[in-house]
Structure prediction request, 326 residues.
Amino acid sequence: MPANVTPEYEKAEARYRQAATDPDRMAALQEMLSTIPKHKGTEKMQAGIKRRLSQLRKEQQKAGRGKGPDPFHIPKSGAGQVALVGLPNAGKSSLLRATTNAEVKVADYPFTTLLPQPGMWEQDGIQLELIDTPPLTAEHVPTGLTGTIRNADLVCVVAAAGEGTLEQVEAVLGLLSARGLNLSSTPRNQLPAADPSRRPGLILVAKGDLVEPEAIRPLKELYAGTLDVVAVSAHTGAGLEAWFKRLVELLAVIRVYAKQPGRPPDLGRPFTLLAGATIADLARQIHRDLPETMKFARLWGHGRFEGQQVHRTEVLQDKDVVEIHE
Ligand SMILES: Nc1nc2c(ncn2[C@@H]2O[C@H](COP(=O)(O)OP(=O)(O)OP(=O)(O)O)[C@@H](O)[C@H]2O)c(=O)[nH]1
Ligand SMILES: [Mg+2]
Prediction:
C-alpha cells in the first residue's frame, strides 16, 4: 500500500471486507472515506471509494424504488418532531435509546445508523417524537436526510463532549446552512413565517458524563443569543429532563385538560396544542364537529376565576382545565 493510512482506516477497511450486506458495505465505505488521510498520495484511493459508494447507492435506490414508503420520510406524530443530527459517533442513537422504547443499534464505531428512526419520548403527558438519523460528514450527506431534517419541527445538533465539540458543532451547522437550514433557539411560533430557512434548534452536548459541567461554558458564550447549549448524558440520564423542558418551550407546546361536567378532569391525559390555540382548536381535537356544535366552555386556570364561562375564541394557556358545553 503506497499511502500511509491510519489504524481507523484499516479497521474500516476490514469491516468493508467482512460486510455481509450492502448497507454494511456502504457504512464501512463511508467510514473509510472519512478516515482516509486527505493528500495527493491517496487521491486515487478516495476516488475509488467514492465510485464504489455511488454504485452501491444506485443499486440500493433501484432495488428500493416502488417498494413501500421512503425510509427517509418519517410521518409526524406527537406534539412535535425533533431530529437528532450530528457527525458519526456523536451519541445520537444512545439518546434515542435512553429516552424512548425504540430499539436502536449503538456501537463504538462510526456510521452505525443507516436510516432515520423515530421513537416517542413522553414526559408529563407530553409526547415528543425524536428521530435518530444517520450521521452526516463533510464528505457525505445521505440522500434523503436533508428532507428528513427539513420536515422536522426542531433540530438538535448533537456533538460529543470532550475535545473537538466546537468543531463538530460548526461542521454540522455549516452543512445544514449550506442546505438552507439556519437554526436558532426561538420558539417555533415566533419565527418569521416569511423565512422558511429559519428553524428552531439547539446544540446538544452528548456524553456529558465525560467532562466537567464548566467545560461547555465557552460553547455557551459563543452561541449566546442564538443557540442554547444543553449538556446531557445518555449513560447517567443527567440533563435529559432539562432538555425535554426546553424542547417543549421551543416547540411552543401547551397542555390542556378536558373535563366533563360534574366530573374531575383527566389529569393523566392532556391534549397538547400549539401556544396561541383557542377553545375552538381544543374542541376540534376532541371531535371534528364540536367547534360548530359547542355553545360555550367553562375554564379553570391561570388568571380566571374557577369555572369562568368563556367563548370559543378564548386563548388557552398551559395547564388550563376546560369543560365544553354543547
Ligand atoms: N460516556 C458516554 N458514552 C456514550 C454516551 N452516549 C453514547 N456513548 C458512546 O458513544 C459511542 C457512539 O454512540 P452512538 O449512540 O452509537 O452514536 P451515534 O451518534 O448514533 O453514531 P452513528 O450512528 O455512527 O452516527 C458508543 O460507544 C456509545 O457507548 C454517553 O452518554 N456517555
Ligand atoms: Mg447512530
